[in-house]
Amino acid sequence: MYLCTMAGIYIHIPFCRQACHYCDFHFSTTLKLQGELVAAINREAVLRKDYLKGESVSTIYFGGGTPSLLIKDELASILDTIKSLHTIDDGAEITLEANPDDLTVEKLLELKALGINRLSIGIQSFIEQDLRFMNRAHNAEQAAECVKLAQQAGFNNISIDLIYGTQTLDDLDWMENVEKAIALGVQHISAYALTVEPRTALSKMIATGKVAPANEEKAAVHFHKLVTMLNAAGFEHYEISNFALPGYRSQHNSSYWRGVQYLGLGPAAHSFNGKQRHSAIHNNALYIKEIANGVLPLEEEGLSLADRYNEYVMTTLRTIEGIDVDLLGEKFGLQLQAYCMQEALPFVKEGRLTFVGNNITLTRDGKFFADGIASALFKIDE
Predict the structure, then answer these.
(1) Per the domain annotation, does 288 fall within a domain?
(2) Residue 84 above 80 pLDDT?
(3) How wide is the angle at C-alpha 334 spanned by C-alphas 331 and 335, nearest 5°?
């Protein structure tokens, strides 16, 4: 098995050199609070040291934002703090999200020395016009070169992100992107359809007619080409947006999808303890101030049985294993088990869901409609 069973820790680093046109994550392009925020994350880790109830940690994930903006000492301080407060499993997966323009030879050797053993590189495209459309900070040459440098530095667990369905990307260009990713010899690829989120630069450009709306038919074509090409190259399509060579699934994200508890540190980070979700405020300066005063700037969301069932359906249906009907019954009761199976039947008849043993899984045709199918299986609190 590739999936971990222990707890995970996520650290949100909310800084970027520039804003990508499509991004709606919490970040700031002003880096002046970077040092103070790292110190606040360390203090939050201490304040919340009991959140995981002593469970050992098998994954640590630096996300953002752009965690590769942190200098060596800042990353080291966070890792040292976590290791002083928690038992870290031998061979724990430690991932850092990085932008290609940050990955110099010196930077990569520093990351390796710190114990970072997995890189998730935000390449998005190997084509210059696509990168400019998205307002990425790197260029096409850096997109390919950074992977080669990481491999030379000794990283053998590398994931890259790609985006398809953009207005500047035709079918041949998309196939070229996938071919380059395969040729580079990376172990993992996360690929996402361009999504137009509210209050982003992209949504404003579309609203004012500066660019055309996103084309769902194009995205569907790109998705099916992606699946065909990566399957042929030996990649396992283990989650809707994620493909891995055997043995290289993302352990951290796989834990999310399986409902394993995790601690989130930093502004906008989420945590989950099995029954409640906690989310930090989306404000860097206020986060720093509150933590300095010993106050945890968190909101708690209690999850009803229906909420937890819905999350289980949403996350597991997206995976290759699908919904484990037996486990669903154990976790949520026979009534919700029967409800899920009944609501799945129309999609089985349409050829978008199938029963594999005791699991409900998406067919290839169903995968592009995963979110809509999952929502149809949801249970509304009564």
Answers:
(1) no
(2) yes
(3) 110
